[in-house]
Amino acid sequence: MNACDVGRERVHAHFDETPEAPASEGLRLHFQTCPGCRELFDDLTILRDALRARPSISLPREDLEVVWDRTVRRPPWLDARKRAAVAAILVTGVSLSTLWLLRSPSVPQGPTAAELARAEAQADLVLSYTARALAATRNAATRDVVGSKVSPAVRGTVPADLRRH
After folding, report:
1. Does 66 map to a domain?
2. Which of 19-23, 95-99, 145-149, 156-160 ranks highest by mean pLDDT?
3. How far apart are the C-alpha atoms of 143 and 80, rounded to whole Å?
4. Please, are residues 14 and 24 in contact by the beta-carbon 8 Å criterion?
5. What is d(CA 116, CA 128) in angstroms, rounded to the nearest whole number?
6. Which residue, of 27, 59, 66, 115, is most buried by count of CB atoms within 10 Å of its CB?
């Protein structure tokens, strides 16, 4: 986190915890070096003041009771018989899924013969490519060593890059 991330978190924490208090000394010091955090603080102050200036409209008691009934109190459609039916359905579902899990094979079946044949063919192909690459590498290395180091040594000439100074 950089200093500006910390500053933004402190601005939001200020408005969450003590919105009426002035900014702390550390926050004011950060504002001197960070105009973005200062602007955020000013914008949130303006927003807070504008929201507080709006008139407060109280909800009528009967509307509050309706909201309370629909959200917090037990809905009328959920009587004891319906709760028992839902519980029975859940118990039946859990029991059936448990039986299904117990009856299913626990060890997965192995690969089919066709899958084994395809894997064997792919392995043979990879091994043949590897063998060809190794043979080509061996031949190139042999040509390089024999051509550039052994042949000149047999002829009695030493290449310039191999001479000792």
Report:
1. no
2. 95-99
3. 91
4. yes
5. 18
6. 27
Residue 44, C-beta contacts closer than 8 angstroms, at least 6 positions apart? 11, 12, 15
Domain span holding position 126: 113-160
Distance CA 90, CA 88 (A): 5
Output the pTM of the full model: 0.35
In a domain, 63, yes or no: no
Distance between CA 97 and CA 86 in Å, rounded? 17
Q: 20, 36, 53 — which closes off a domain?
A: 53
Whether 71 maps to a domain, the answer reads no
Residue recorded with tokens 């008139």: 55
Check whether 91 has a pLDDT greater than 80. yes
Coil, helix or strand at residue 57:
coil
Cα 136–chain centre separation: 45
DSSP per-residue string spanning 98-153: HHHHHHS-SSPP---HHHHHHHHHHHHHHHHHHHHHHHHHHHHHHHHHIIIIIHHH
The 10s digit of each residue's pLDDT in 38-59 is 898 888 889 888 888 888 888 7
How many domains is the chain built from? 2
